Amino acid sequence: MDRLVPIFESDALPIGILVLIVIEAAVLVIWQRRNPKSPLGSPNTARIVSFLGAGGSLVAAMIFHRRPEPSPEGFAIAMLCALVVHLWHIAVLLRR
Question: Quick one: which of 10, 37, 53, 57 is 20 to 30 A from 67 by CA?
Answer without folding.
Answer: 53
